[in-house]
Design a protein that fits this description.
The protein is mainly α. The protein is about 65% helix and about 0% strand. About 0% of the residues are buried. Keywords: Membrane, Transmembrane, Transmembrane helix.
């Protein structure tokens, strides 16, 4: 990503500086936004799976204590 921020073409005026910086920052923000959405989707999947697992565990009976013989 850092290598993509370099530019080979010369920037002649202030307008070119602002346009180049805006395009570069916009591309970085776009990539970060996509990564953020993917991260949220993955973490949401983990949360849903854990929630379903917790529900299945709640329906199970707890283990019974062994009875002492002769009591």
């Amino acid at each position: 990503m850092a290598l993509w921020l370099r530019t080979a073409e010369p920037i002649l005026d202030a307008r070119g500086v602002f346009e180049t910086v805006a395009v570069k920052i916009g591309a970085v923000l776009l990539v970060l936004g996509v990564l953020h959405v993917l991260n949220v989707l993955v973490l949401n999947g983990f949360r849903k799976r854990a929630h379903v697992d917790a529900r299945t565990l709640a329906t199970l009976e707890p283990p019974r204590r062994p009875q002492a013989h002769g009591a």
